[in-house]
Write a structure and sequence with these properties.
single chain, about 140 residues, mainly alpha, about 75% helix, elongated
């Protein structure tokens, strides 16, 4: 489970890099694929696919900024709980689980969008590249 989450994180990083790197609009779908990172280059995304994925990435980045803010608040709560006479495991656990569920839901939403816009052949290529990002 942790490996899958880690790989998903890498996927998101590479996809976000692709969206940022392709700020300029180009007419040819071939030109779009040349701006994708090495791991997504072979997908040859159409203009529509790229636009849909970029929109999903922007939303994902917005939600991840919210997550980081909430994560900072959770760390402050953890410090406060740690300094108290007894550490309230349930309170910390409940808050942490709720927060990380939001992050996982955000990643799932992004991957679901990507899955929906890719063709079966592009999905095969995309899925085969996930192994390259796995770190033991």
């Amino acid at each position: 489970m942790i490996r899958k989450l880690f790989m998903t994180g890498w996927v998101l990083c590479f996809l976000q890099t692709a969206a940022i790197a392709d700020d300029e609009r180009h007419d040819s779908p071939k030109k779009h694929s040349s701006y994708m990172p090495r791991d997504l280059h072979g997908l040859e995304l159409s203009r529509q696919q790229l636009q849909t994925i970029e929109k999903a990435l922007r939303e994902n980045m917005r939600l991840l900024r919210q997550f980081r803010s909430e994560e900072s608040r959770l760390k402050r709560v953890m410090r406060k709980l740690f300094l108290s006479d007894s550490f309230d495991v349930k309170e910390y656990s409940d808050r942490a689980q709720k927060l990380y569920k939001k992050k996982i839901d955000t990643e799932i939403r992004l991957l679901k969008t990507i899955h929906r816009v890719l063709t079966p052949e592009q999905r095969k290529k995309f899925a085969s590249q996930l192994d390259e990002w796995e770190i033991d």
